[in-house]
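Recap from last week: sequence in, structure out.
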Amino acid sequence: MAAIKKNYHWLIAAVLLLQLFLIGGIYNNLSNLFLLPVTESLQISRSSFSLAVSVKGLCAFISTFFSGALLHRFGYRKMVTFLMITNAIGLLIMATSKDLVTLAIGLGLLGLGDGICLSAGPPRLVRHWFHKHQGLVLGCISAATGLGGSALCFLFSGIIESSGWQSAFVVSAVLFSVMTVLLFVVVRNQPEELGLKPYGEGQYAHKKQESPTRKWSGFSWEQLLRRPAFYLLLLGSFLACFCTYALSQTVVPHLRSIGYSNAQAVSVQSVLMLVLAGTKLGFGALSDRIGGKRITMLCLGSMACSLGIMAIWQNIYAVWVSVILLACGLPLTMLTVPLLVPDLFGYRGQTMAVGVLMSTASLASMTAPAITNAVYDKLGTYRPMFAVVAMVAVGLMALYGVIYLMVSRDKKKLCV
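Predicted structure tokens:
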């Protein structure tokens, strides 16, 4: 028991990894694997299915936006336990749905857990338990979403083919229930609850980051609300996530539409999730050396190239290159914000800023698949949409450069 308590920091990280493995497994495959069987079974269009998924995105946006206040009021352990149960109920409703409305209700309940269980909650818990190697730990647990997406891709695909998409949702609900019990038993909000200190207390992962004990510890939340750069970052974060979801949520349908078999499309999706796990882990560790700003620019460049290639070429070699680049851009939706915020704004307003910025990913997940599939329903192809979004991604690199300069100027003024 003494050894377990001594290394409880890593036990927390391991449970978070399992949590994100499971959540990523269902979230990352929701549109890709379930779009065709659900639309065919319920006799609805792709854009109608995406509209139902948008309800999940709307609920995720609301929960993520208020995640900072909810976590401060109730703590991570209670909120995640409640929301994981809500997720399981939502999955069961989806499994029994006979129409679009019931499906949307289940997806809405699933979306309520997004903000705390997937987006803003895990980074906050990591900050409480780890003062050293935060980037590496965040990269490890974020990588679990890719691993879950890859591993559960084959599981869900097999269940869908043998027993139907309803059975896949039932199995997901059971897995969520088991994970809920594990979280409640193991997780504690802060190490002090067990008489422990944060791992590496008093140390900071990157030498360029400001320590709260120095003269400037960052912008307060009130100061951030008066910074134009913060609002530009909100816009940039939304557009960056929109670009990633426009492609990542339609990989399998796109490949099916240009002539690839279901087995080939599922294999590509699985490899995408596997490579994503590696990029999140690598980028998380690399951020401890080069900072969140450079990591974000690297992700944006990769996403722009991925979208451009997918829009122009259709051969298998181009597909694989695009998928690898996509895996390098996907950390924009979850990893880069908690790494970028302390790099730009310091630590004082970090909790609220991360929650609000992460909510833009939920807003993008609500709108991007719906718009992309609406374009497909009208044109019969995804490629024009990919081309437009690729140009947006290129423009975002310039926008983020402007934001970095504005923040640097504001910081110098406050430190005078």
